[in-house]
Amino acid sequence: MASSKTAIYGALVANLLIAITKFIAGIAGKSGSMISEAIHSVVDTVNELLLLLGLHRAKKEPDASHPFGYGKELYFWSFIVSILIFGLGGGISIFQGIMHIREPESIGDPTMSYWVLGLSVLFEGASLVIAVLHFREVRGSTPFWEAVIKSKDPSNFMVLFEDAAAVAGLVIVGVFMYLNVTYDLPILDGIASVIVGLILVAVSAILARESRSLLMGEGVSPNTKNVICELVQKDEAVVKVLHIMSTYQSPDEVLLMLIIEFDHDLDTLEINDAIDRIRVDVKAKYPLMKYIIIQPDILDGTLDRHPNRGANRMGI
């Protein structure tokens, strides 16, 4: 989590400084695409602040109104970030680009804009390198796209996608600005803004999809379910694991519910002892399983006819 914050803080500082210089260059050089890039940097700055807010609020301890904690705060704010990228970043850039295409305006002296673009690429590139190194450390040998899909911490890949989109946008603006100045085609300024906006919309769609999945209650992988099932069924008191349900409360906390058929000859005390053993074994294998609810049942669902044969225990 600390390394996640390092990447976010690096991006925050870079985007704030770049946004200021882009606005100055865009206004002085009458460049719509540069102003679009400035808006992009402002949105990214706000995004980093929201991610830090989500990380902070996710650490709040459980209370009476939120017995499973506040871990999903991170997923909520990550989803808000993806919406901001779409609306403020992509939407405004596309709108401004269309306006400049309809009413092209000759660019002013591009010298300052070139300097700003160069410095922006340098700073955004440094931030991107930090994000790439952090994500590489997190994903290990897992393929890139698979790691994005499997990641339960949006802060691990959000900064990476934001910085990659920023660098791509800067390169596009630089190329189109050069063509604009060289061939006196003011319409290219608006086209560059539209392309930058479309890149942001595409990135926001990817981030929104992943954040939404986690916010809606994404569970552990099928492979993890199989391992847990095999582990539980090794206990001598277990006949069969009937159902496994789970949901990520935060990147570091999972709520797990097991519905288990126990040996029918066991009494309540013996079943409770078995539940305690299972809870300890599962937590030893998967420390992320902070909340474990175990419900005894039998395959035909008639356990409630034999009250001395079952118990309901929650391990925290």
TrEMBL record:
Domain Cation efflux protein transmembrane: 11-216
One function term, GO molecular function aspect: monoatomic cation transmembrane transporter activity
UniProt GO BP: zinc ion transport
Major location (coarse): membrane
Membrane topology reported for the UniProt record: Multi-pass membrane protein
Keyword set includes Cell membrane: no
Cellular compartment(s): Membrane
Top-rank taxon: Bacteria
Transmembrane segments annotated in the record for this chain: 7-28, 74-95, 115-135, 156-179, 185-208
InterPro entries for this protein: Cation_efflux, Cation_efflux_CTD_sf, Cation_efflux_TM, Cation_efflux_TMD_sf, SLC30A9
UniProt key word Transport: yes
One Pfam family in the UniProt entry: Cation_efflux
Alphabetic keyword roster: Membrane, Transmembrane, Transmembrane helix, Transport
GO cellular component: membrane
SUPFAM superfamilies (UniProt xref): Cation efflux protein cytoplasmic domain-like (SSF160240), Cation efflux protein transmembrane domain-like (SSF161111)
PANTHER family referenced in this protein's UniProt entry, alphabetically: HUEL-CATION TRANSPORTER (PTHR13414), PROTON-COUPLED ZINC ANTIPORTER SLC30A9, MITOCHONDRIAL (PTHR13414:SF9)
Protein name per its UniProtKB record: Cation diffusion facilitator family transporter
